[in-house]
């Protein structure tokens, strides 16, 4: 057993392995100061909640308190390993500033009240607006961090009970394009690949995916392959010099906003060189001729001009991709939060399809998620989809949902796609959406153009309900604040990127009067007196297991089929991949084996959209295009970004994240080791841009766009020249005076989104940068261990010290 | 042969559609998707205009490849006003009317392309036929966009 500073070494100790071998175990754990495993009263099974990887762990409980965590060696996802956020983040549960009582606005101030008063106010205002205006006045904005049972109940209440179309999650900001890209290609959501594809692949291609910081345990798996015999080649597309870029065989750093040109050029080369599995393409896809014609205009020289990537590098990357024998492709925010997000992400699907590399070990696609339970928001219908990946424009499927819910199909809104988050805020802005119920998310820091968002949320005519753990920046604007229980304080299931379902058990009681989100939602439904077509209560369950059983029936026969799962089964073996059915009782490792898809016109979730305008295809168009339910190859022409650099705003601004923080730091900012590792906003710039201006490490800069300004200290990093980077984690809850000078990166971002996935664009704002003061020797607060690594050697390295020592046991039992 | 007439008419109607799309964009700056997508697809019409002017020369026509498209004072004023009006619900109804107008204009342009394609085929003018084959799908996409956006926007605008 070794003790490792996991702030200094985020990925821990290497356990090398070769292709086709089983990834060795390494059990990571961290307990409160002075405690050992012998002191722990109980170990309670759960999974990780501060990223989307879904690593199995046990929560250590002593004297009714959480005192630490330990990875589960037998879990298929992590084989015992944990991300630094999980090793230290549990401490946030005990923060003294947790909300413990409901709050209500009285005379302009939020004051403590009891649950009955708070819930009567919430349900009362909702009912009042339903009577006055109808369901179009009511909206729900949820999260990627609740549990499946809660999303399903929320979707039922909103779509089925209230009948509003306005339901979305903050998953719109992180994973909407993953779902959209899968719907375009496979006509249904559902992740094709499996994490075990890392064990088998000979090439892994990461498109805008800094996996080292976003899913660090998955990166550990890749690092262990890279350290073993016959390592895979790595292709990386990223404008920053990320840990992935440093490990890459080929690193392409395109100009922001040009991903579609780069992808079209890569496909141009793959097709032009005949690296195409014709047999697979002919048998299992439609649209190859159109794809071929579309990419004909994008030779590598065009990419060189538009993306500023040498044509030779594009050719080299295409050769690695084109000659791979087992290709694993992954995609994340660098594509999803960019201009033409879906069109770029779809080209990655196309790449694996034309190469015939899908549904076999090592041959997979992972359209990644950003949050732990984002997958559930999508499948349970709390994010702008209908429950069970049902197609809103297919009347038979809506009728089937109505059957499950005992409702008249007419009462489930399906006249148009469910309203996406950005449009809901627009409706609130123009005054037609007057009740917004926000659960477990912080739009006042995470949405683009914060000045606008704050002014929308602060409107008197908008009744704002916020259900959260802390008095977040958003909660401060609310009319009613409801204190919620969190991970470890309630029971429920959640599903990670590769469809692995974990049961997370309640380990301790929530603080004060805080309640599980599920209990609050059920109470809300009861107070609204929501009923089914026979007059019986609409929500028939009163606990998580009941909700899970309801969801199982709703999912039966759909791609995300949970009908063969149960709490009992997950207690026996936690971490099972859906679909789980009578035919596949132990789960399903890979979707789309043998080129069989869920794309049949009668069963598919989506008929697709125009990749430039976002207009949905009509059923008749889809039937003509794809009568036999094959995978759809489609591609788009390049459209330039809407905000281009100018003389006044010469830089391109990219926002993003660091391994040590999650979202708006509501939890990680309250875990001392994590907060100390990345304590304050910083700005990254390339060495050449800094040298041109005579600026250096630690200088205080001002970053401006037409929408706002942010002050941050300069980290001279390996980022692409012409681009500046700001992490988006830093708001105002722990620095209330900072609003004046600007601390949140989203003060600067534009209100603009991909018309297909409706995911906002965080990667292509035009920005001006100036220096406010030279450094007095203080370096930038950016971590040195990650993509923000300094180019200069004299910056003190990021260390966690004594309190960050975590245990690692290599090769434990599995 | 009246091919020249058909090209001239299409040049006029595409130019008009492009300007309508830009005007709609200007009027709905606070509806960000409409603002941006209307501009993106207006670019298709402007490209068609340029191509029609170029091919028009083969038929003895002198058409402007880039009719004045820059926003004038009036349009800039509209942008500013639409931003200020962003807090009022009436623009929702104006948007429906505008999208309906775009759809009708695009439908007219689509028919003009049909006419041109038929004529080009009859007269064995391959270049002209290829131009129609290339451009007409863009017009259909503009129409479908207006239709879809109308459908999507109608409910909230009409029932709230």
What does this structure look like?
The complex is a heterodimer of chains A (814) and B (160). Helix content of chain A is 29%, strand content 18%. Chain A has 814 residues and is of the alpha/beta class. Chain A folds into 4 domains: 2-98 and 806-810, Single Sheet (N-terminal domain of TfIIb), CATH 2.20.25; 135-174 and 373-563, Rossmann fold (3-Layer(aba) Sandwich), CATH 3.40.50; 176-368 and 598-632, Dimethylsulfoxide Reductase, domain 2, CATH 3.40.228.10; 651-783, Barwin-like endoglucanases. In chain A, strand 25 (700-705) and strand 26 form a beta hairpin. In chain A, helix 2 crosses helix 22 (517-528) and helix 10 packs across helix 14 (311-322). The longest helix of chain A has 18 residues, at 115-132. Chain A starts with a strand and ends with a strand. Chain B is mainly α and 160 residues long. Chain B has a single domain, classed as Up-down Bundle (Ferritin). Helix content of chain B is 81%, strand content 0%. Chain B has helices at 3-27, 32-56, 73-84, 90-122, 126-159. In chain B, helix 1 runs antiparallel to helix 2 (32-56), helix 1 runs parallel beside helix 3 and helix 1 (3-27) runs antiparallel to helix 4. Chain B is elongated and about 55 Å long. The mean pLDDT of chain B is 90. At the A-B interface, helix 19 of A face helix 2 and helix 5 of B. Chain A: Residues 41-97 form the 4Fe-4S Mo/W bis-MGD-type domain. Chain A: It comes from Geodermatophilus tzadiensis. Chain A: GO terms for molecular function: 4 iron, 4 sulfur cluster binding; metal ion binding; molybdopterin cofactor binding; oxidoreductase activity.
